[in-house]
Design a protein that fits this description.
The strands form 2 sheets. A 4-stranded antiparallel beta sheet has the order 4-3-6-7. The protein is built from 2 helices and 7 strands; from the N terminus they run αβββββββα. By secondary structure, it is of the alpha+beta class. Helix content is about 20%, strand content about 40%.
Length: about 110
């Protein structure tokens, strides 16, 4: 009887543990390209998902798919980045974002 009770509790708790990881989003700029990386807190890369690039006013500038290695690249010249950029990643079950300020972009574009 106790074994059945413990098994039942384990089955109830299993989905909670599986959903406990978070999506981690990181974006960097090298003056020509914004590189987006998405992975889960358990270390696995997000193998599919949608990347949305928004300006400082939350106007959608472009949308692209994550590559199977959890990355995406955007040509900096293809988006208006004067006010900074909001990079959102949505995998369908998880989402998160990264902010690139105008200072971040300028600092990485100095020669």
């Amino acid at each position: 009887m106790i074994r059945h009770l413990l098994l039942g509790c384990g089955l109830i708790a299993a989905p909670i543990g599986a959903a406990a990881h978070q999506l981690i989003v990181f974006a960097s700029v090298d003056c020509e390209t914004v590189t987006v990386e998405a992975k889960f807190s358990n270390g696995n890369v997000a193998q599919q998902g949608e990347v949305r690039v928004l300006d400082a006013e939350n106007l959608l500038l472009t949308t692209l798919a994550l590559e199977s290695d959890g990355t995406a690249s955007i040509a900096l010249e293809s988006v208006d980045h004067t006010g900074g950029l909001v990079i959102e990643v949505d995998t369908g079950s998880h989402d998160n974002y990264w902010l690139l300020t105008p200072e971040d972009i300028a600092r990485n574009c100095q020669t």
